[in-house]
Write a structure and sequence with these properties.
mainly beta, four-stranded antiparallel beta sheet
């Protein structure tokens, strides 16, 4: 719908703006356990997923909290970057314990209690993205450390479909 969502880390809320730049009705949103939000992702059902400091919140596009939100566990501690894969599973960079947490589209923890991690390859994961092959790419943010750079978790996610690929498919 060409709306823009902004995480208000200091305000513990999420603002929604229309394509015209006006604040959307009900914005800013504070439902669903939003607390020190850092990252936002939109799933294929237009739900808004928010990476909080110690949880993940899920809101409808109108700002209503999903049942059970916020969700915890899966090794999430210090949530930062967030992405949704092709199956609707949610991946969150967990900076405090150098891992990636995974949740189902219903908010259930999928990854183990320590998340997906490797002290040898992750140091301060801050952002992440899922590519068209289902690989999760994690940005390690602490420059100068032995693990600064990118970590690839091969095949951890369901591949995503980019608009370019979808447009190339025959009708």
């Amino acid at each position: 719908s060409n709306n823009v969502y902004v995480a208000n880390n200091n305000g513990s809320s999420v603002s929604k703006f229309t394509s015209a730049g006006a604040a959307a009705t009900g914005s800013p949103f504070t439902a669903g356990g939003i607390s020190s939000p850092y990252g936002i992702a939109i799933d294929n059902s237009n739900n808004v997923w928010i990476a909080n400091s110690v949880s993940v919140s899920k809101l409808s596009s109108s700002g209503a909290a999903a049942s059970g939100s916020p969700y915890t566990g899966a090794g999430l501690s210090g949530g930062r970057g967030i992405a949704v894969d092709g199956s609707g599973n949610v991946f969150v960079a967990s900076v405090a314990n150098n891992s990636v947490a995974e949740f189902s589209s219903a908010g259930a923890a999928i990854s183990p209690s320590g998340g997906y991690n490797s002290a040898a390859t992750m140091n301060g994961p801050n952002g992440l993205a899922i590519d068209g092959s289902g690989n999760v790419w994690v940005n390690n943010s602490f420059a100068g450390s032995s693990a600064a750079g990118l970590t690839e978790i091969v095949g951890a996610a369901t591949p995503t479909v980019t608009p370019l690929v979808a447009n190339l498919l025959p009708p």
